[in-house]
Design goal:
11 helices, 5-stranded parallel sheet, 9 strands, alpha/beta, 4-stranded parallel sheet
Length: 312
């Protein structure tokens, strides 16, 4: 398998063959995770530390489960109650952790670039579980895996990413990955939620939902990230849902077999209609959650292999 990375900090540094290597290995772990006995010894004897400076339910649980199923010793640190709250710097934290000799460090941080800074200060492999508005690579990889399994391929597809593009690290990582794998990407949302310079990414931009969804194969909805907004980006949640919330009427403009995605957590009745989110004939949202564990298992195993090579 072709995977040359020491860390997984973003999609930006990955070549198409490395993306494929992660997804191919993740396919085998998806099969393992559906068996009665779900354990492997790929990370046996290794230590995984999870550091979440931002609260998370599904991503943290997914990484914990992935590490345990691979046989690692997994420790999750409550960063909200840690020495960081007492004034310790991020670099001090990195040096302290490095002295404990972990093998894998999983980090989520509210500031863009913080995970990369940590990676420069430690000897172990670092996985970015989301940093600010920068990237969320494993989310894009699990989305790619879900698309590939449902559509049978991960190229020459038309994918619409809809909603709060400006505040979304998920949108950025997916835009990079989907473009790298030869797909056509459309971004749909109000102009107030489109970042400056978005045209440089090679995506088509729409502010009309029905127009943007015409004929697409995949509809990827994004959460309205109110906690990252410091002004009036949208008039009201009701108005936002009317114009940009996905419902059966708007989805009818997409391809007849288009799938519906959402990274979670969902604001039902805001960015997506609850009945549509639960419609298993179109929605792959629960499959995304399932594939998250498999993708994170694959990413950690590949990084651990490279770590073993460098220490030989």
């Amino acid at each position: 398998m072709t995977f040359r990375q020491r860390h997984l900090l973003g999609i930006e540094g990955l070549a198409p063959d490395e993306i494929t290597a992660i997804l191919d290995l993740a396919d085998s772990y998806a099969a393992l995770n559906r068996r009665e006995r779900k354990h492997s010894n790929a990370l046996s004897g290794l230590t995984q530390i999870n550091m979440f400076f931002e609260t998370s339910t599904r991503t943290q649980a997914s990484f914990e489960l992935a590490g345990k199923r691979l046989g690692a010793d997994v420790m999750s640190m409550a960063m909200q109650a840690s020495s960081v709250r007492k004034g310790e710097t991020l670099i001090d934290t990195a040096l302290t952790l490095n002295a404990m000799n972990p093998d894998l460090l999983v980090v989520r941080h509210p500031h863009s670039g913080a995970v990369d800074l940590l990676a420069q200060k430690v000897n172990c492999a670092v996985l970015n579980a989301g940093d600010g508005q920068h990237e969320h690579p494993t989310q894009a990889l699990l989305d790619a895996m879900t698309i590939r399994r449902r559509k049978g391929r991960l190229h020459r597809l038309s994918v619409a990413i809809c909603g709060d593009i400006a505040h979304s690290r998920v949108a950025r990582s997916n835009l990079l990955l989907l473009g790298r794998m030869g797909n056509r990407v459309r971004l749909i949302g109000p102009p107030t939620l489109m970042p400056a310079g978005i045209a440089e990414f090679g995506a088509e931009v729409f502010d009309d939902m029905r127009e943007g969804l015409k004929g697409v194969d995949v509809v990827m909805m994004l959460r309205l990230q109110k906690e990252r907004m410091d002004g009036g980006f949208v008039p009201s949640e009701r108005e936002y849902h009317h114009r940009y919330g996905l419902d059966a009427d708007k989805l009818a403009h997409a391809g007849p077999d288009a799938i519906v995605m959402h990274p979670g957590p969902m604001n039902r009745g805001v960015e997506i209609d609850g009945a549509l989110a639960d419609d298993l004939s179109r929605s792959v949202i629960q499959e995304q959650v399932e594939m998250g564990v498999a993708v994170r298992m694959a990413a950690m195993e590949l990084l651990a292999r490279n770590l073993a090579k460098t220490s030989e």
